[in-house]
Amino acid sequence: MKYNTKDYDYLIVGSGPYGSIFAYEAAKRGKRSLIIEKRQNVGGNMYTHKKHGINVHDFGAHIFHTDNKEVWDYINQFTEFNGYINQVVANYKGELYNLPFNMNTFYQMWGVKTPEEAAKKIAEQREAAGISGMPKNLEEQAISLIGTDIYIKLIKDYTEKQWGRKATELPSFIIRRLPVRYTFDNNYFNHRYQGVPVDGYSVIFKKMLESELIDVKCGNDFFDDKEIYLNEFPKIVYTGMIDSFFDYKFGELEYRSVRFESETIDSNNVQGNAVINYTDAETPFTRVMEWRHFDKKSDEGKSVLTKEFPQDWDRSKEAYYPVNDQKNSKLFKLYRLEADKLKNVHFGGRLGNYQYYDMDQVFGAALKTIEKEFKGMDK
Ligand code: UDP
Question: Which of 3, 35, 81, 108 has its Cα between 20 and 30 A from that of 328?
Fold first, then answer.
């Protein structure tokens, strides 16, 4: 079987943002790519579709946020963003709190009204818990940042169901993704630019991949013919799981997976917010998205809601989150060394690099790779 039928310059494995940006930029420079995608849709986990006039994100809420102006301008060339600001509400056994951790949360939790009172409360709880020095894990990091009460009600159980392991066995950087602020500001992110595309993310990928120098084959698994692909293509951009590429020869890296359950309800407003987190241990899902609140529109009197359930990963499931703890980081290094030996295969994206990247980081990394790849060609 011959796959490189058109003398493609690149085989791109996976049509998520990393692979699609690469193909788009290569085409701009006259280079021909074949993208193979094992799913039936392009765009990876950024894929969205419209239902009752509402953009539904099939693989979980994707809110674009960045401080990187180059990345922001780059994605804006493909679509218009709507200025959505994510403001998450947490439900702990029926008590509601604003996230991320800010003066509203502190007021709701303790009745404190000033930053000074809040800081005092947190310092007392940190001290009572005996936490000082460098936090060794997520639990210590969380208590040291926002005290025991918030840790117990808003972090511990959510984190343990999200990751399927104890908060004491997780790296502290995961909780530092969330801002802690001593102002009344419920913006979930600290970044300067934020939003979701007015028409969903899928249009971005449609535009990126419309060049006649790009062919996309969905429903094609690289591993069905790996050796043939490796022999036929001068260069491969691989965005799948790095351990899978090497047939798990050093062992499996750990991932966390999620699954989604959606329903449509005859209403314009079911939960009053785009995202509500359920931070107790008993509720089996972590969060519920009501998609119309991302768009601020729904013309048909219907609302689409999606529940997100974390689940263990195995080879039959999609890998969503890398578990970047020490053990896995060590294992990843072994794979990285193998990857470096392959001069004609480039590894990229969240799975290819085994990094808990946000979308903007994937965009930034792809643009860096392009710069390197086509150095000298661009003026
Ligand atoms: N987290 C939490 N409670 C919440 C929301 C988040 O404890 O209500 C913790 C949890 O450990 C989670 C991490 O913060 O994995 C990062 O949250 P984020 O919303 O950034 O996760 P993502 O959207 O990438 O799943």
Answer: 35
Question: How far is the centre of ligand 1, averaged over its atoms, from the C-alpha of 130 (Å)?
Answer: 24
The answer to whether residue 148 sits within a structural domain is: yes
Quick: pLDDT tens for 225-266.
Answer: 999 999 999 999 999 999 999 999 999 999 999 999 999 999
79 and 20 in one domain? yes
107: containing domain: 102-177
Boundary of a domain, candidates 144, 177, 210: 177
Instruction: From the candidates 32, 39, 126, 256, give the one annotated as an active-site residue.
Output: 256
Render pLDDT for 58-74 as a digit per residue (tens, 0 to 9): 999 999 999 999 999 99
Is 378 within a domain? no
pLDDT of residue 379: 53
Candidates 29, 73, 116, 177; catalytic one: 177
Place of tokens 């009172």: 117
Number of structural domains (the chain) is: 2
What's the CA-to-centroid distance between 321 and ligand 1, angstroms?
12
Ligand 1 pocket: which residues have CB below 6 Å? 90, 99, 154-155, 158-159, 162, 174-175, 177-178, 277, 279
Rounded distance, CA 259 to CA 59, Å?
8
